[in-house]
User: Fold this.
Amino acid sequence: MAAEHICLIHRSGAAVASWRRQWIERGHERGDVLVHIGDRPGAGDLFADERWLTPIDAYLVDGSLDISGRIRALGEDANGAIATGRSGIRMTGPADVARDVLGDDRSLVAFESALDRLGANAPVHGLGTYDAAAFSPSVLEEAAAAHRRVVVTDAASRATLDLRHEGDGVTVAGEIDRSTDGIVTSWLQAHLRPVPALVVDCVGVEFIDIAGLRAIARGGARQLSNPSPAMQLLLGVVEPGAFGLEVVS
Amino acid sequence: MTGAATEFDHRLFVHDGDDEWLEAALLYARDGLALGEAIVVVDEPDRLEMLAVALGPDGDRVRLEDGDRWWQGPWRTFAAYERTVRDLLDDHPVVRAIAHPTWLASEENREWRRFESFANLHFDGWPYRSLCPYDPKRLGDHVCTDATATHPLLHTTAGARPNQAFVDPHTFVSSCLRDVPATPVDLRLVLGSVEDLHRVRSAAADWAAQQEVPSSAIERLVLALSELATNALRHGAGAAGIELALHHETMVMSVADEGREPIDPLSPYRPPDPGVVGGWGLWVVATLCDEIEIVAGPEGNRVRCALDI
Assistant:
């Protein structure tokens, strides 16, 4: 099973704190080596046994930009962790810090893409926290596409959108509207595969409007499976065929 | 679509009983068949049976639709007419309908009269002829009186003649909107950007739940709100304002934008083009709500809807 690689897009620090807590607790349960990337906070931190890396140590090789070298080294670190009885490596850190160290948005997206590919075979998990205010919408869309899972949270730290690619399956959940449509389209374009089918599981959709349906269609979907009640309400008043979509059970 | 009629031939045929209907329908259908036109008949099953028997072997070339099944509420029924005509025009020069709006026997379906009127604008230029039989015995006298305002032609045994009582569709549609009550506002919401959509949907749903509105009506409200707010932000120059109120058993929602581009008040009646991904928003709102009214002014557009709970 592929490693976890989550793009957490947030508009408030509250969301980051609770997601980081869960992330680290899961790491403890699994026996991962925990790596926090960023400036170490003061004493009294709840997770004092985390390994802390400065951004330069985390993203650069010998102080210079070498994304493929860095990814190779992470794979070796994961093997080393397993050799000492641990399960893998579990990293988290703010994406804007990574971007500043790596130099630009494009390098950040390239790093995330490489990490996503590494995670397909190696137990290297990553939770990137993306402050929506620190990135342009188009960069957020590209960064989201480079993660197997995307979570967008609102100010109350509730997940408003949750996109998951697990095995061959692609699932959209939460609320899909004009505020998240670009992310949904870009992510589906990267994760939908014609084999076995261009199908999106919609069982967890809590709200969807025309902008949301259009986003799924533009993402390349042809079939919608398990439509939730919110999805059924919309599909009761529009023709899915007009969007090139059909509902399958 | 080639040749033939360039204007929508929309005839009212107020008639007295089944015999008169059968005679006219048979003649009208046979004329069409002789010209290679497609024929669609919508009526009650007993009448469809009568016509099928009378047509004999020609009956196979006529499409018969049971009015009770055909009726899916005004917006979807209108879309079904449009789709049917569009499909039939693929391999016929002209489509002829003999369409008896059987559902008008029920008082709550009277908003269909707006579509009878709007059809004159929508199908203008289509090679489409519709003979609309209205039987006062089956539909009631006042329904047939309404129909004189929505059909530009009157059908007679000698052909069609102009109907002096026909009313311009723009005038007719706006004059028979059900009054969306002007009622004190219970909740005001403002959106500055699409990032606010989630918040205003939650606030509207919470408000409606406090008023003990059933959840199915809340879901319709929230979807309609999202479509209107998204439109208002796209067409508008700035913020969008939402007002909500509960008036007896009706939720009243008003969404205003600051746009300089007026929305056509008839746009909610127009079925979106099949295969085109745009233009669905107002259609969804109109289908979900029980009434929709658009007021376009120099200060922006205001869309008011009523949802019965």
In short: The two ends of chain A are 26 Å apart (CA to CA). Chain A has a mean pLDDT of 91. The interface with chain B takes residues 11, 154-155, 160, 175, 177-179, 207, 209-211, 214, 217, 229-230, 233-234, 237-239, 241-243 of chain A (CB under 8 Å).
